[in-house]
Write a structure and sequence with these properties.
Layout (H helix, E strand, L loop, with lengths): L16 E2 L12 H14 L14 H15 L8 E4 L2 H12 L5 E6 L3 H9 L3 E8 L2 E2 L1 H8 L6 E4 L13 H14 L2 E5 L16 H4 L5 E6 L11 E5 L1 H8 L2 H6 L4 H13 L1 H27 L13 E5 L5 H8 L4 E2 L1 E2 L12 E5 L5 H16 L1
Parallel strand pairs: 1-11, 3-4, 3-6, 6-7, 7-8
Antiparallel strand pairs: 2-9, 4-5, 8-9, 10-13, 12-13
Helix pairs in contact: 1-10, 2-10, 11-13
Length: 378
């Protein structure tokens, strides 16, 4: 039965700790900053954002976003190369709709974001996985597969990958782009964690190549750096890609995505509120990451993992443990996680789990890991 009073997508029960949720903590969502931005917008008296929006997205918003990204990436971003979306998921869905047909091949990392797999399956695509090592996507395996297939695109989460936390090296990024140009396939780079590093200098984002290389498409979102409920994101790509996106029937009929939300976020960007919010999140998440690492060492001493340097997740190997069965048993301990099999397009990774440190406060993270350790020992 549908509960008409439910507001959010995930609703953990009272007393239950779900360390699998890749959501930001409700207490970290910047209500006051957005209230101030809304007040500034309403005071302007500008009704245009309430109209059907420009297909590519609000031009003033794209200009503000381009300035923000230019500073963050230390690379000039032109607003004409930005296309406004309703988040990263809508971007992936639109790219599949415009550039693929059922039965065509795409490559993904193994493991990869399990809900992206849902979108690709919705479009009837043939998904071919490529292994990763500690430096990201394995190019030798990619070369072997390119000898067998002609993919439409390769989907990658190059920075603080979900779920593994790994970051593709600069050298491999450049080699991957060279292969995409040679074999004429798209690199769809999901870069939603690019602005959330905690302790390292990052390689150049794929977004920096997207303006000049037609085979590179960068997808990003405000869901991780501001609030998921805004349903606002962007694609950064070559002008030919932008023209194709903006010329779609979906945009021709409904207008550009989220013009009203874009107006509010533009105010936040121009006031410096977005930059301040990202800085706050980086400090807070870095603190929670350390708490989860310490709790894992104490309560799951047999766990094997690399400490993530950014993003939201720990990817943990539990040798000899069937994590699907472990998840079922964990309910008795009022704790949850996401089993590795979810992140595998070939239903492998059965000894892995993904834990998130984003949703819960430090003391709740510690308690959740303690419960998981007790479940493992039972």
């Amino acid at each position: 039965m549908i509960n008409e009073f439910i507001i959010t997508q995930t609703n953990p029960k009272t007393g239950f700790i779900d360390l699998g949720m890749g959501n930001p903590d409700l207490r970290l969502l910047p209500l006051d900053a957005l209230r101030q931005s809304a007040e500034a917008y309403f005071a302007s008296g500008d009704t245009r954002p309430l109209q059907y929006g420009a297909e590519q997205g609000d031009g003033y918003f794209r200009a503000a976003l381009a300035d923000c990204l230019s500073q963050a990436y230390r690379n000039s971003v032109n607003p004409k190369h930005l296309f406004v979306t309703s988040g990263a998921s809508s971007a992936l869905d639109l790219l599949c709709a415009l550039y693929t047909h059922p039965g065509e091949v795409i490559f993904v990392e193994e493991p990869t974001y399990f809900l992206a797999l849902r979108i690709f399956n919705d479009h009837g695509l043939k998904i071919i996985p490529i292994s990763m090592d500690e430096h990201g996507l394995c190019l030798e395996e990619l070369d072997e597969l390119l000898a067998q297939y002609r993919p439409k695109f390769l989907y990658t989460i190059p920075t603080f990958q979900n779920p593994s936390g790994r970051t593709l090296t600069q050298a491999r990024r450049e080699e991957l782009i060279a292969r995409a140009r040679r074999d004429n396939f798209f690199i769809v780079a999901d870069e939603v964690y690019q602005l959330l590093p905690y302790s390292r200098t990052l390689p150049v984002p794929f977004a920096a190549f997207a303006q000049d290389v037609e085979q590179v498409i960068s997808v990003n979102s405000f869901s991780k750096i501001l609030a998921p409920g805004l349903r606002l994101g962007w694609i950064q790509a070559h002008e030919h890609i932008i023209e194709r996106l903006a010329g779609s029937g979906f945009l021709d009929s409904g207008g550009g995505m989220n013009p009203f939300t874009s107006a509010l976020v533009r105010e936040l960007i121009e006031s410096g509120g977005l930059e301040a919010n990202i800085a706050h999140l980086r400090r807070e998440y870095a603190r929670r990451l350390k708490v989860m690492d310490a709790a894992l060492r104490l309560h799951l001493p047999g766990a094997e993992y690399a400490i993530p340097q950014g993003g939201f997740f720990f990817w943990i190997h539990l040798p000899g443990v069937d994590t699907e069965k472990l998840r079922e048993n964990a309910k008795q301990y009022k704790v949850d996680f996401r089993q590795g099999e979810l992140f595998s397009s070939r239903r492998a990774m059965r000894e892995y789990i993904r834990l998130s440190f984003a949703y819960y406060a430090p003391e709740e993270i510690e308690e959740g890991v303690k419960r998981l350790g007790a479940c493992l020992r039972c």
